[in-house]
From TrEMBL:
The chain crosses the membrane at residues 25-49, 61-80, 92-109, 115-137, 149-169, 181-200, 212-229, 235-259, 279-303, 323-345, 352-371, 377-404, 416-436, 456-478. Keywords: Cell membrane, Membrane, Transmembrane, Transmembrane helix, Transport. Residues 26-482 form the Major facilitator superfamily (MFS) profile domain. This is MFS transporter. It is a multi-pass membrane protein. It comes from Nocardioides aromaticivorans. It is found in: Cell membrane.
Length: 489
């Protein structure tokens, strides 16, 4: 392959089977983009009550600030992955970053819930950055550095989420203006746009057609699925709207499958989804996504509970929650990228995924059983963060092993959607369990509704169960399979 890179910013590849040269900036740029999407996904979660207070809107309304990006992601992520394959990843990444920047500016300058939601819808485009980043790394890095690079980029998911929790705690301490968190995303989006424009070489896509109709149908089906998942605890799980949307999701997604089987160049080849290693990786992503939000949401609420009233918790402020409880796991994610890449390269992605998910089971079980002292809680949180980071570092390597190069973008897009669905289900179930168990406690300033300790134990135990299912998939989902079998399907 002939390189057009500036010699000052490129190095010789150590493997003849990879590109002749590669830019030193490609890996940091792609890891930074993954960090950005994780930052945008998580940064609003601790600030939702504050946003509702400062905009004078209900908790139900402000919940859409988190839901809006998820719905956009479900609609556009597979499309962006396919567009990157067809027209070139650099062009699509720059468009996605521009949309994210515009959305961040809207959210930062607006003073109404309508403008904020419009900004969050545009910010949801950032979820497409993960599959695009993995496609870039597969195309640009030599094989000798590919596992290392993908692991660093994937680990940025966990680091970005942890950083977002810490940053939100600092920026909104003592009732600080919520706009500050969106100015942070403005600065991050602008930086990533400039870095990507400089780092990414201009390469043409492989051509072909884009199945826009398939993308529209898939997006509609995923929105119909995620909307009741994310709002069911407010609407009621047996409410007519909730049940109708679940039914609609089933019909539309089945129609998508029929449409893809009859399309010459489908958005997603059904053989890709049915291939056992790809299916196992996607289901593992869903269960780890569930576990991730069990950790983040459950732990955040637990540590802030007033111990004198609830009989549990650590009376932590938002700032203390961020610094004392969330920061250690966030800092650990920094070296986990290179370590995970080394482990994947030496032992393979499947054993690494299995080890990470077993660690996740232990972490969540510890949170469920041992939560009387802050030190033991912090250790369990650190282990949970490590499990999530390493698990997601292994998954791109599994997909790269079992899908053809031209399917890298769409395969990782589907995996990202599964992570989003898992996170949405995890959030909904944790919130539902806590709300259903809430008991009224009398205080000098009036009654306060608090979840029971048993509700947190149940939520953490379900998180352990999700990690256990992911571990079973890692143990059993890849036996007797050969690399790239799907490419010949």
């Amino acid at each position: 392959m002939t390189s057009t890179l500036d010699p000052a910013t490129s190095v010789e590849a150590p493997s003849a089977s990879g590109p002749a040269t590669y830019s030193r900036l490609v890996l940091p740029a792609m890891a930074a983009n993954v960090f950005l999407l994780s930052l945008i996904q998580t940064v609003v979660v601790p600030a939702l009550p504050l946003i509702g207070q400062q905009l004078s809107v209900s908790a139900t309304t402000v919940g859409w600030v988190a839901t809006a990006t998820m719905l956009t992601a479900s609609a556009v992520t597979p499309l962006f992955g396919r567009l990157g394959d067809v027209f070139g990843n650099r062009r699509v990444i720059l468009v996605v970053l521009a949309l994210t920047l515009v959305g961040s500016v809207l959210a930062a300058v607006g003073d109404s819930i309508a403008v904020l939601l419009a900004g969050r819808v545009l910010q949801g485009a950032s979820f497409g950055l993960f599959p695009l980043a993995i496609s870039v790394l597969r195309q640009e890095l030599p094989l000798a550095r590919l596992h290392h690079g993908m692991s660093i980029a994937a680990t940025a998911l966990g680091f970005g989420s942890g950083f977002a929790l810490v940053a939100t705690g600092v920026l909104t301490n003592n009732g600080g203006d919520y706009h500050r968190i969106f100015w942070l995303t403005v600065a991050a989006s602008a930086l990533m746009l400039v870095l990507s424009a400089i780092a990414l070489p201009r390469r043409a896509g492989r051509g072909g057609r884009v199945d826009y109709l398939g993308a529209l149908v898939l997006g509609a089906g995923l929105v119909a699925l995620l909307l009741p998942v994310s709002q069911g605890h407010e609407w009621g799980w047996t409410a007519p709207t909730t049940l109708a949307l679940f039914g609609l999701a089933v019909v539309v997604l089945l129609a998508f499958g029929v449409l893809q089987s009859r399309t010459e160049q489908p958005l997603i080849a059904l053989s890709l989804l049915s291939h056992r290693p790809v299916l196992a990786t996607n289901l593992a992503s869903l269960f780890v996504g569930y576990g991730m939000f069990s950790v983040f949401l459950g732990a955040t609420y637990f540590v802030q509970a007033p111990a004198a009233l609830a009989g549990y918790g650590f009376d932590a402020s938002v700032l203390r929650t961020s610094i004392e409880f969330m920061l250690p796991g966030t800092l650990l994610a920094i070296p986990l990228g290179p370590i995970s890449g080394h482990l994947v390269g030496r032992y393979g992605a499947r054993p690494v995924l299995l080890s990470a998910t077993v660690l996740g089971v232990a972490s969540m079980a510890s949170l469920a059983l041992f939560h009387d002292h802050s030190a033991e809680f912090i250790v369990a949180l650190v282990a949970g963060n490590a499990a999530i980071a390493v698990a997601y570092a292994a998954m791109p390597a599994l997909l790269v092993r079992y899908v053809a190069p031209h399917d890298t973008g769409i395969a990782n897009s589907v995996n990202s959607i599964m992570r989003t669905v898992g996170g949405a289900i995890g959030s909904a179930i944790v919130i539902t369990i806590l709300a259903a168990s809430a008991e009224t406690v009398a205080t000098p300033i009036g009654p306060v509704s608090l979840p029971t300790e048993g509700a947190y134990t149940a939520a953490f135990a379900l998180g352990a169960g999700a990690f256990a299912l992911a571990a079973l998939l890692a143990a059993l989902g890849f036996r007797n399979t050969e690399p790239h079998e799907v490419a010949a399907a």
